[in-house]
Amino acid sequence: MNKPLNQEDIAAMENQLRNCVEDDRKYWQVNDVKCDAIHTAKTYEEFADRVSAAHLRPLEKSDYKQKIRRTWNQCATNTKNVEE
């Protein structure tokens, strides 16, 4: 009954702890949004939308800088370059 823990047992406990901490973080994140939305949402649909989007983060300026310039019809531009 009192045998020492092996590496697999320790790894399983660490994994379980990480999962529990992540689940707890998600719970409190959603709970904070619920507490805010319950007072400010005008309809239930708005409340539900806010709670559904609780895991999303706002965009930052660096997200816009990573945008790649692409043309609408890439196939058409590729064929023009080949013909020339």
Q: Any idea what the shape is?
A: flat
The largest pleated sheet is described as: none
Mean pLDDT figure? 85
Number of strands: 0
Structural class: mainly alpha
**Gyration radius, to the nearest Å?**
25 Å
Overview of this structure, please?
The chain is mostly helical. Helices cover 69% and strands 0% of the residues. α1 (7-40) packs antiparallel against α2. The longest helix is centred in the first third of the chain and has 34 residues, at 7-40. The chain starts with 6 loop residues before the first helix and ends with a helix. The model has no long low-confidence stretch (mean pLDDT 85). This is Dynein attachment factor N-terminal domain-containing protein. Residues 9-73 form the Dynein attachment factor N-terminal domain. It comes from Bombyx mori (Silk moth).
List the helices and strands and how they pair.
Blueprint: H1 7-40, H2 44-52, H3 61-65, H4 74-83
